[in-house]
Amino acid sequence: MSTERNTVPKLGFILPDDPIASEMHRLDSWLAARGRDDVTALTLLSRIEGGHLEDILFKAGDAEVIGPIAGELAAQGCDAIVWACTSGSFIGGLSWAQAQASALAEIAARPATSTSLAFIAALNALQLDRVHLLGAYPEPVTQAFKACLGSAGISVERWQALDSPDGPSSFRLSLVDEVDRFAGSLPARGDEPILIPDTAINSLDVVEDLERRTGRTVLTANQVSLWHGLSLLGVGTAIPGAGRLLAGETRNTVSST
């Protein structure tokens, strides 16, 4: 495989090809606008046929489907690879997610992770093992993420499934309103973070406001994907205005493949 190498580290994302205006397509300019000119980002799309159904998610996360995209990212000079899909990485459980990331790393000859593994790594770095889960997905898929987290030693205290049938439906959710309602149902005391999976939900510019409104750490799919990718590159993870995780309030430990 011929590869292009960079003087500035480049982070590669594989994103499902939902027809949405995802913030993940603008990461390069988003990072630069926040003073992070020490890293660049490239996002390529992988085909997903259908929505949040278990058999479709297994197909979407198959290494034969996403592996060639990882190889292309490496060929275009990316130094680490992120499969930026939560449901397409947790649907087979923790061991499946780990094997998936290992396969991508082998194909790309680069460190690789996924959004599900990034959530787990972020919680470990923040030294948190009890969470509340606000899932955009139907209940069976949300339960699958709950089980994946449980296999990693993370207890889901309260959870809700918003029943979005696919990525575009998740994209159209009113995130602030949904988080306000969910946070209002939680115990007044407690430091459990709120987890919001699904990379179809734009969140990078509202995470800090969500934390202020709820009084809790909020971890979103795109936020943890970016944080873990930066960690794999070995560059700093601090980005102002993007929540506690990206404020640098973590232990300096990273799980990588």
Computed CA radius of gyration, to the nearest angstrom: 17 Å
What is the H/E string? EHEHHEHHEHEHEHHEHEH
What is the approximate shape?
A: globular
Beta-strand percent range: 15-25%
Helix proportion of residues, in percent?
Answer: 40-55%
| Structural class category | alpha/beta
Neighbour order of strands in the largest sheet:
2-1-3-4
Q: Outline the biggest β-sheet.
A: 4 strands, parallel
Please mark out the parts with pLDDT under 50 across 5 or more consecutive residues, or reply none. 252-256
**Mean pLDDT rating:** 93
- How far apart the termini lie comes to 20 Å
Number of helices: 11
Q: Say how many strands there are.
A: 8
Topology:
Blueprint (H helix, E strand, L loop, with lengths): L9 E7 L10 H7 L6 E7 L7 H7 L2 H13 L4 E4 L3 H4 L3 H15 L3 E3 H11 L4 E6 L3 H13 L3 E7 L5 H5 L3 H10 L9 E3 L10 H8 L3 E3 H13 L24
Parallel strand pairs: 1-2, 1-3, 3-4, 5-6, 5-7, 7-8
